[in-house]
Amino acid sequence: MLNFYNIELIVAGTDEAGRGCLAGPVTAAAVILPQNFTNDILNDSKITSLKNRELLKSQIQSEALAYGIDHVFMDEIDKINILNASILAMHRALQKLKLDPEHIIVDGNKFKPFKNISHECIIKGDGKFMSIAAASILAKTSRDEFMQRIHEEYPEYNWKKNKGYPTKEHRAAIEKHGINKYHRKSFKLLPDQLKIDF
């Protein structure tokens, strides 16, 4: 069972999805949960089934005191790098909260101060605290929906399945079809051995 971070403060949890992908945005969410929020299946989105993620998304959006979701797209990722883009996405998600948090808990080990609000980085926080886990669910489901939509535009990359991650299938499609507007140009899209000039 995940913990509630602090009942004395209004705490926002934030997390991102899609940091390691070759295509699509990095997406972040921020969530403030009520103190009486409970859910036995809430956990890190990476170990939660698709069916449960959808159930959780609905509950989180209906019961959260506030939540925000935002994307940072490929051109921005290429300009500022993926770490800065991930933090920017979390800042944008926090900006969308209709309630100001008194403290922010962040999944991972890197963050930049948001406004004048105190924050704490927590390694594997999405498996420890409910609000970070809730943010991970909203970030993952929102990004997956985006990847599903652009799959219809470029089905040859099978983004509805791989979600833009560097699978063998995705890399093979890049080798065959090249890249498109949804690929991150600053990322290593193909292994070096596929680009050797003879």
Automatic annotation (TrEMBL):
What residues does a divalent metal cation bind to? Answer: 15-16, 107
Molecular function in Gene Ontology: RNA-DNA hybrid ribonuclease activity
Query: Which Pfam family, an example, fits this chain?
Result: RNase_HII
Q: Where in the cell is it found?
A: Cytoplasm
Q: What class of enzyme is it?
A: hydrolase
Note the InterPro entries from the entry.
RNase_HII (IPR022898), RNase_HII/HIII (IPR001352), RNase_HII/HIII_dom (IPR024567), RNaseH-like_sf (IPR012337), RNaseH_sf (IPR036397)
Q: What EC numbers are recorded for this enzyme? A: 3.1.26.4
CC cofactor note: Manganese or magnesium. Binds 1 divalent metal ion per monomer in the absence of substrate. May bind a second metal ion after substrate binding.
Q: Which residues form a coiled coil?
A: none
Indicate where this protein is primarily found. cytoplasm
Catalytic activity entry: Endonucleolytic cleavage to 5'-phosphomonoester
- Recite the UniProt keywords alphabetically: Cytoplasm, Endonuclease, Hydrolase, Manganese, Metal-binding, Nuclease
Which co-factor is required?
A: Mn(2+); Mg(2+)
Q: Which parts of the sequence belong to the RNase H type-2 domain?
A: 9-198
HAMAP family assigned to the protein according to its UniProt record, in alphabetical order? RNase_HII_B
Q: What does this protein do?
A: Endonuclease that specifically degrades the RNA of RNA-DNA hybrids.
What family classification does the UniProt entry report for this protein?
A: Belongs to the RNase HII family.
**Protein name, entry field:** Ribonuclease HII
Organism name: Christiangramia sediminicola
Lineage, highest ranks first:
Bacteria, Pseudomonadati, Bacteroidota, Flavobacteriia, Flavobacteriales
Gene symbol? rnhB
